[in-house]
Amino acid sequence: MLWLSSIDQTAPALPAAWLIATQAQPANLPERSELRRSLARELLARQFGLAEAAVEIGHEPAGRPLILRPRGSGLHLSLATRAGLVAIALAHRPVGIDVERVALASEPPLAVLHPGERHWLENLPAPARPLAFAQLWSAKEAYVKALGTGFAREPESFSVQLDGAERFAVSDEENGRRAAGVIRLTKNGGHETMAAAFIVLDQA
Q: Nearest CA to 81 among 194, 199, 203, 201?
């Protein structure tokens, strides 16, 4: 899995994820959606060697983005926007990406986590919990995006385990699935620390 940091970069191979810092400050959900779709169209045009007008992005009923044009690309797309950072993932199989701000000044909401995740976080030193929570949550959201369900799927119904500083593993007994992804820390346009997670599933 390849991480890139500029919309001007094309990926020599897939899967790949782009983390693009921006000074844009969308005021609401439609504006955030348009920002990430606009950047995704520009990026895909470069990746495919096409004019931007030849690229069209739609979405499934549950919200997962789809590449409508060029037709027949066979590629899967995932998008995320958070606090001055746009994330775009592209792969040949179902893919999910998410970014979360590391909220150093607040206590993580442990009640939304799987019991095993809560136990692990509760045993960390308090100063380490905000970063660990942001990494866990971005991994969980990336996974449900790859599934295509979003958080119509209850977040406590599956577990994520961080595997060092760069990897995570998902255990989803309800779906009989295990999966693995990658995590990364980066900065947004305001130079805040952000946790990013990127996962590609073996099958839909």
A: 194
Q: What is the CATH number of the domain that holds 141?
A: 3.90.470.20
Write down the pTM of the prediction: 0.92
What DSSP element (H or E) covers 138? helix 129-147
* Virtual torsion, Cα 115, 119, 121, 125, nearest 10 deg: 170
Question: CA 154 to CA 157: how far, in whole Å?
Answer: 5
Q: Domain range for residue 174?
A: 2-200
CA distances from 119 to 104, 113, 139, 169 (A): 20, 9, 17, 17
Gap between the Cα atoms of 46 and 97, Å rounded: 20
Q: Kindly report the backbone phi and psi dihedral angles of residue 107, in degrees, each rounded to the nearest multiple of 5, phi listed first.
A: -85, 130
Is residue 86's pLDDT more than 60?
yes
